[in-house]
Amino acid sequence: MNRQAVYFTQPGAVEIREEALPPPAPNEVFVKTILSAVSSGTEMLVYRHQIPQNLPLDSTIAALSGNFDYPLKYGYSTVGRVIELGQGVDRSWQNKLVFAFHPHESHFIAAPEDLLPLPENVTPEDAVFLANMETAVNFLMDGQPIIGEQVVVFGQGIVGLLTTALLAQFPLGKLITVDQYPLRRRVSQEIGASCRLEPAGLPEKIYPLLHSGDTHGADLVFELSGNPEAFNQAIAITGFDGRIVLGSWYGQKTVNLELGGRFHRSRIRLISSQVSTLSPGLTGRWNKARRLEVAWRMLAGIKPSRLISHRFAVAEAPAAYQFLDNNSGEALQVVFTY
Question: Which residue range is the domain that position 148 belongs to?
């Protein structure tokens, strides 16, 4: 059996390579991929060679060993079907739909413990959002929104949109989204934002919206744009003792923070949030399995498959990344089909 695999080979270059696959070994299964989702924020950092050197791909995911060095396979949101079992694998795995934190490949071999069976009420098109939904769930666990708070979300890519959809279920005072692209701003309001704004001239536009009694400024801000300039905007609109959850990964982009003004006297709290771990303050009662259960429930309720804007056959992967590089404002979720 041969598979098609997507390789990042150098900055701005992607290849499809044919690779031979052996039958599954004992205690392994063979999976045929149905869909995989492009995580445009992280994967475009890889595509543009903006990843810090000598950084491990992800030490918590078995399929992502090694560093961000070309050539490499990357991606971590794959849905497929188990089509062959190795010796010793329970027969119940045969034909099971599964999610895997796995690179973009048409077929792959995995241990059953590295696969997540799809719940009956979650379709493959919704399940392919699991990795990003888990990230959004983690943002809320770190930000801990409170009833009546005024919340701002910078960045309405897929993770930002999913975060907005989750926040829209809370009885907040206001939920304001900020993004440079009209499509993303419109969709953010369709899924629950009370107001949408573009970044230009933001402080003057948003201040009148962030007044509640004697308090001024946002209570809670999520910076998910991937744009270092948004960090200073987040500081500028956060109120006294407010919280900023930093979910963006800037890669090698330089961040020049303005900490001598509003930040210095406002007791603003900066919270680093990354899905590979849970907040130490929650680990007495929470683990990754419990968080994943929440993410599955959120997928079943929100049904994010409506956010799939573009489908490319995996053989068209080079064109897909070129499209994202040049037209990111026209895309929501890009998926590969197999």
Answer: 132-280
